[in-house]
TrEMBL record:
Family matches, as CDD domains: GGDEF (cd01949), HAMP (cd06225)
UniProt GO molecular function: diguanylate cyclase activity
Protein name, entry field: Diguanylate cyclase
EC class of the enzyme, as a word: transferase
UniProt-listed Enzyme Commission number(s): 2.7.7.65
Species this protein is from: Blautia aquisgranensis
Amino acid sequence: MEDRNCELLFEYLRSILYDSKVKPLDVEGLDEPFQKLGMGLQYLDKAVQEMKQCSAALSKGDLSSFNPARENFLCENLKNIHANLNHLTWQAKQVAKGDYSQMVSYLGEFSEAFNTMTEQLRERENSLKLIAEKEKKHAEMAESYSQLLMELIARSEEEILVISLDGQNLLYSNRRTEDEVRNWEIYKKWVRQIENGRRKNDRRKELYEWKWEAEDSDHRFYKITTGKMKWQGEWSYVHIVQEVTEVRAKEEQLRAEAYQDMLTGIGNRFYLREEADEILDTGEQLALCYCDLDHLKYINDNFGHLEGDEYLKFFVRVVKENIREEDIFARIGGDEFCILLRSCAREDAQNRMADIQREFSERNKTVYERSFSCGIIEIPENHSPVKLEKLIHEADENMYGQKREHKNSIKIK
């Protein structure tokens, strides 16, 4: 009998290690002394399959699909590789933006190649700047634009205005007349700005080129490049006005997505860090509540991940209904949340969280019990400088008392 159990377990282990599709193991079919070992091999099977999926995603450069379970020890090295690739992706984007100070020191021969590339790009940019300076001086000595070039400018989507240095006269517009100038309101704003600038710093008018932004009364946004040039023998300002309303809206949308938890709609860890750093600098009284939902894995395993998602979203809905608009609420992990209650003492925070726990447990009851564990840290008024991560760690430690009480409390009704 023992040989039969060993043979089944060994065949299952061999299948885990070598088969593309693992043959299932019937744990109930094993003798009782071997069932625990069978369950352990099933856990190993799940960890190995997850490791294969994660490594396959990394091998294709798919960083967004990499999401191994926290407890999967087989993925530790893959997690490090994923973190390195994420950081390297960010560094490459910075280099693409012209930040050649990025250096890589943790990827062996690739580090040397990457650093050599950025150095060469820096040298190339400096060389191009020298060439551009020479071309600029040459352009300043050239005659006025030809008729063909003027026609091309007239058809440009960007609005081009040439204004006298005193701001009194419109010398040229590619919209032909003042009545056709769409951004005349922006031009008037510029006149006021340049006048204020003269009082503060008369050297500004000596700059060759600078960029600024403006908003009109219809809440449309513009990027404007302004420079000095000679127009028909006289120095003047040229303004190139580009509307960027849609671009700005898209940038705001991307920023919102970067700071938002996509499942629950509340802020994520990055949002919490940015908001908390700003609030902590004010020295106001705060209560930080670290919440960890109980039994999420049980619900996922027994009722499916969709139900687990609803469990998370219901928790978020209950919390939002019981905190104020000025309080900060963020999801910082799979089942971990952080609430920053402003101008709130520890006792008030405890009462508030007890009410939330009660409502979360009793409202819209399901076949399983709902609960979450909570740890609370008070930050007194006029507190000394403190780091958010330290506060979260302390609240996390305080939470474990409740976590132990809730650990074995899951019941089916």
